[in-house]
Amino acid sequence: MAANPYEKIGLRILFIRFFLLLCLVGIVIRSFDIQILQGEALKKKAENTYVRGITIQGDRGLILDRHSNKLGASTEAPNITADPTQVKNARQAADQLVKILGGSRTEMEKKLSQERRFALLASRVAPVKADAIKKLNIVGIYTPDNSKRFYPNRRLAAQVIGFTGKDDQGLEGLEFSYNKFLEGRTLKTKEYRDGQGTILNTGKNKREGLKGDTIVLTLDKKIQFFSEQALEQAVKEHRGKSGMALVMQPATGELLAVAHYPEFNPNNYGDFSRSRYRNRAVIDTFEPGSIMKVITVASAMERGMSATKIINCENGKYRVGGTVIHDTHPYDYLTPGRIIKVSSNIGAAKIGQDIGPKAMHYYLNAFGFGKKTGISCPAESAGVILPLHRWTSIDAVAMSFGQGMSVTALQLVSAVSAIANGGKLMKPLLVKKVLSNSGEIIQANNPCVVRQVISANTAETVKRMMARVVQEEGTGTKAAIPGYRVCGKTSTAQKVARNKKGYSSSRFTAAFAGFAPFDNPALAILVVVDEPKQNHYGGTVAAPAFKDIMARSFNYLNIPPQTDMLAALPREVSHAAD
Amino acid sequence: MKLETPTIQNHKELRWFLLIIVLAAELICNAWIRSESSQAMIMITRTESQIRDMADYRQALSVELERLKSEARITRIARTRLGLTPDIFNQTIYLPKGTN
């Protein structure tokens, strides 16, 4: 019996429904397979075509002087990289890239044909070149951000600031010792691209937050420049081997300048010999010579010696054990003030003998000699002061006029500053503060009194004695500044002989240390010239540089001359109209 | 078999038609929003890139400014091009009125 037409249609509908249901079930199963079972693998496969893992490197922090002038900064210098697996036509791409970057086309093509996902084509190129490469729009070529260290003032304070290597890590100076603060942080993130290869969200805007910390120094760019200029002139004029000049604020211990000559340019440090990189003011030690007489007299006065005591200076020759001590000019009887003024070795030796080795050793330590100052520069030297039990009979005598011991320039300027600062020894400061990239203070280095070495009264008396050094008949008259009362002390130290025992008769260290103005010392300066050739006296070689730095700094800092001293000057004085 | 009346049939077709219209509208809206958001993302990325470039340029300019105002450079120009020499010990000093 044949089925009626309605039953036939019903069957067909049933069959079609079943077929559609089957299709639906098939789609659901396939969807489940794609979405759930193979989901992760397929997601990764897809991501590989539009997502790329990148590492963002924050810029290195700034190095600023005390007035926020940039001494070290980073400038944009992108890298050029490639994902060779994405580059479709390596030869064509190499042709285009070589036109901008230069170099060999075959080398470039080789780099672009590798079976790797990363190739560094050029590092730290000029931003203009990176922009030109971006405009080529070659798939697989990238211009990740990078930066290059730049020192806008070139040679200024180069030994103090130091420099960074190709990997942006500090290699010398403060760049090295403050590397953990200065270096930029890194962040691993993803770069998204759309179908046309346009970069979408990169996360690169987070780069500002990755910037390293900023260090603010106590250095003053202008005073540093005055010091470098005066030092260069002194070393060149007297054909010295090298020189150092340090400027310190006695009341705070802040270093306003640390100058070296010869210097180097940290922007291309490879062009200079490695010996120039050294911050000799804190690393190198030398025999301080006559500047130590000030310390000897201060120590003796602190132990009760009278400023009017008369000392027999033996007419220029004095035997201690097997050693004969000489004075440049013979003197008979001198007061401690005159001993400092004319720089008598015999006078200082007798004072040293009076106070004895134990007290001498105590005061040398108290003034900070033989110990590191704790300044934030790498490889600081402590200098050499032998332990008391190893001192011979001549040691205390020799040290009283600066022989048989070695100090750093930093220790010496700190000790002289202590006299200017009423007997208070301050910790030398070079880094004022460290700021985060958002400007918050991470570390603040405030002035710190190490100890009261001598009383304020003793310091005042020694100051008066030092003021006489730059007056008529003193050894440091070339350091006198018209209108200002300057305190100072010259030093002409023989260097140890190279091939024989004792001291050389041709190699000297000429130095001058002092401070001014007398009433309220604003600056303490030490100038050291190593092995001057034409004239080796500290008063001739170093004192003029001291005067130059001090006078120009006073002019810059608006420290007025004393009106009573100005009035005594033989010059025409005009008065303002109103 | 009971056949539906034409009015009921029309209502059903209308409902389906409306449903399709709503779905199509949703589809169009979705596509429009997606393309607009992509466009906005591209614009944001470009703007961010421009901001970064500007910041880098500003940094480069500030470093260049530091280089230009370097004392060594200015002194060299003053000496070599303008023939000037520093002489701080022979300055004109103006004292306040009434100073002896």
Notes on the protein architecture:
- The complex is a heterodimer of chains A (578) and B (100).
- Chain A has 578 residues and is an alpha+beta fold.
- Chain A has a domain of 347 residues: Beta-lactamase, CATH 3.40.710.
- Chain A has 19 helices and 25 strands.
- In chain A, strands 7-3-2-9-19-20 form a six-stranded mixed β-sheet, with no helix packed on it. A five-stranded antiparallel β-sheet of chain A has the order 11-10-24-23-22, with helices on both faces.
- The longest helix of chain A has 33 residues.
- The relative contact order of chain A is 0.11.
- The mean pLDDT of chain A is 91.
- Chain B is an all-alpha fold.
- Chain B has one domain.
- Helices cover 73% and strands 2% of the residues of chain B.
- Chain B contains two helices and one strand, in the order ααβ.
- Chain B is rod-shaped, with a radius of gyration of 40 Å.
- At the A-B interface, strand 3, helix 9, helix 18, helix 19 and strand 25 of A face helix 1, helix 2 and strand 1 of B.
- Strand 25 of chain A pairs parallel with strand 1 of chain B, so a sheet runs across the interface.
Write the layout of secondary structure elements.
The complex is a heterodimer of chains A (578) and B (100).
Chain A: H1 5-37, H2 39-50, E1 51-57, E2 63-64, E3 70-76, E4 80-82, H3 90-101, H4 105-112, E5 119-122, H5 127-136, E6 141-142, E7 147-150, H6 158-161, H7 173-177, H8 179-182, E8 186-192, E9 214-217, H9 221-237, E10 242-249, E11 254-261, H10 280-283, E12 285-286, H11 291-302, E13 311-312, E14 317-320, E15 323-326, E16 333-334, H12 336-342, H13 345-366, H14 393-400, E17 407-408, H15 409-420, E18 424-426, E19 431-435, E20 441-444, E21 449-452, H16 456-469, E22 487-496, E23 503-516, E24 523-530, H17 538-541, H18 543-557, H19 563-567, E25 574-575
Parallel strand pairs in A: 2-9
Antiparallel strand pairs in A: 1-8, 2-3, 3-7, 4-5, 4-6, 9-19, 10-11, 10-24, 12-17, 13-16, 14-15, 18-21, 19-20, 22-23, 23-24
Helix pairs in contact in A: 3-4, 3-5, 9-18, 11-13, 11-15, 11-16, 12-16, 13-14
Chain B: H1 6-68, H2 71-80, E1 94-95
